[in-house]
Amino acid sequence: MHATLADVIADTTQNAIEAGAKHVSLTLVEDGATIAVTIADDGKGMDAATQARAFNPFYTEPGKHDKRKVGLGLPILKQLCESTDGAVSLTSEKGVGTELKYSFSARHIDLPPMGDLVGMVMMLFNYPGDFELTFTHRKGAEEYAIQRSELAEAVGGLETVEGLSLARDFLQSQEDAL
């Protein structure tokens, strides 16, 4: 199981990127009672049969993982959501994209800590590939949103130590303001 919620969010967002999405939207909403995550993408999507098996731990998409015949990501997510008084839903259309929504009770004793949210966003923004990622974080009445391309342009790229440092500092300032 993942050690933090940031690890869970990173894992499920990587699935969207790996599905060939050109646009991925990651929204995190914390209202004091609930922590809710929505990941929407325009990737390859799933047909109804694949969606029906997505939460089966003995199923993984053929060809996704070499030498592995099980896919534990979504089954573990479902177990975590249900064990912390939350929920999970998946909607998808082949050739159109997928939307994954999940939530947790923010006050549940078994809820893992949030973890390094800024580090998670930085890792996702630096994930290889040609895609746009928009991250939105809403906490109470406050919110910020940032796009991968917008941040890279503002800091002069995410390929240098200086650019990465500036990007991390900016994201941390946004988190501190929430």
Account of the 3D structure:
Strand 1 and strand 2 (about 35-40) form a beta hairpin. The longest helix is centred in the last third of the chain and has 17 residues, at about 160-175. The model is unreliable at about 65-70 (pLDDT under 50). About 35% of the residues lie in helices and about 25% in strands. The chain has a single domain (about 5-175), classed as Heat Shock Protein 90 (2-Layer Sandwich), CATH 3.30.565. With about 180 residues, it is of the alpha+beta class. Helix 1 (about 5-20) packs parallel to helix 4 and helix 4 packs across helix 6.
Instruction: Name the beta content range.
Output: 25-35%
The strands making up the biggest β-sheet line up spatially as 3-4-2-1-5-6
Q: How does the helix and strand content classify structurally?
A: alpha+beta
Q: What are the low-pLDDT stretches, counting only 5+ consecutive residues below 50?
A: 64-70
Q: What is the CA-based Rg, rounded?
A: 16 Å
Largest sheet: 6 strands, mixed
CATH topology: Heat Shock Protein 90
Series of secondary-structure elements, N-terminal to C-terminal: HEEHHEEHEEHH
Portion of residues within helices: 25-40%
CATH class: Alpha Beta
| Tally of strands | 6
Counting DSSP H or I runs of 4 or more residues, the number of helices is 6
Termini separation comes to 28 Å
